[in-house]
Write a structure and sequence with these properties.
Low-confidence stretches: none
Strand content: 15-25%
Order of helices and strands: HEHEHEHEEHEEHEHEHHEHH
Structural class: alpha/beta
Number of helices: 11
Radius of gyration: 19 Å
């Protein structure tokens, strides 16, 4: 098979790496992208005015990535002023992307080299708009802490994530995503690059903490979801992680629950689980009703 024939078998994937002060993790992030066995169309690295020497690491590592994948386009975007919000960087990356599919690979996470090969299989179904793999948790040293997120995403014990699947996005929302954000890490996701992706991202920017949940829900209103049960993404848990706590989180989860209740005819069981989830979150943050 010629190189041109091989290229035709691959879909154009734009990989977006948004970074802020993750210099110590960038080497492994960019290497895990360059080592993908899937042909990557372009790599876009955005730095949000880092103060830890990230730009030097980025320049060195994208040069290495370019040698490993010489056909991959490379774009570097430097912010002069910090945006203050991760999703703003996602938007800027998608606006700069020219691929048909988007992988937002956060700067502190890593992936198995077969991540894209496995996740892109979901798009063999033309109705799939969001395809993702299971995630494992690692610590700041890269040591495995948890092999998967299944139990924390399915606290009700339904067995929803026991097998890989393709299904209606609306059914996914009505049965489980209305309860909580069941995609724990955007690095595990590849999106179809449609006008709705950018539009939904801009709408999600209004949230401080649940913008990713809102984004997934908006996309799944109009397409199917693919889930690969293999833990192909490694979500790094450390004290510098962008996850926030407190009353804002509780408020925004309540907003999402209300959104789902108004938009969908939810089963009584699911409504009960949503109430339990809210009580669980309030208890976690010590918020007394």
């Amino acid at each position: 098979m010629s190189s041109e024939e091989i290229k035709k078998e691959y879909k154009k994937v734009s990989v977006i790496v948004p970074n802020y002060n993750y210099a110590k993790y960038l080497k492994w992030r960019i290497l895990s992208i360059a080592q993908q066995t899937y042909l990557i169309y372009e790599l876009i690295v955005l730095d949000d005015a880092s103060t830890d020497g990230s730009k030097t690491v980025i320049k060195k590592m994208v040069a290495e990535a370019g040698r490993m994948k010489p056909e991959m386009k490379i774009k570097l975007i430097w912010n002069k002023k910090n945006s203050g919000k991760a999703i703003s960087q996602w938007i800027k990356g998608v606006e700069a992307a020219s691929g048909d599919y988007i992988w937002i690979a956060e700067a502190d996470d890593i992936s198995r080299k077969d991540f894209l090969v496995e996740v892109m299989k979901g798009f063999e179904n033309p109705d799939v708009v969001l395809s993702y793999a299971e995630s494992a948790i690692i610590n700041k040293y890269g040591i495995l802490l948890m092999p998967n997120f299944r139990r924390s995403r399915d606290k009700e014990g339904t067995g929803h994530f026991a097998k890989s699947y393709i299904r209606s996005g609306q059914d996914e929302i009505k049965e489980i995503m209305a309860i909580r954000c069941t995609i724990p890490n955007v690095s595990a996701v590849v999106f179809k690059n449609t006008p709705n992706l950018l539009r939904s991202l801009k709408q999600a920017e209004k949230f401080e903490q649940v913008g990713d949940w809102y984004l997934y829900a908006k996309l799944l209103e109009k397409g199917k979801i693919f889930y690969n049960r293999k833990a192909l993404n490694f979500f790094r848990l450390h004290k510098e992680s962008a996850t926030k706590r407190g009353e804002v989180h509780v408020k925004e989860v309540a907003m999402m629950h209300e959104y789902f209740k108004n938009k969908y005819d939810l089963d009584k069981t699911v409504l009960g689980w949503m109430g339990m989830e809210m009580k669980r979150i309030k208890a976690k943050y010590g918020i007394i009703e």
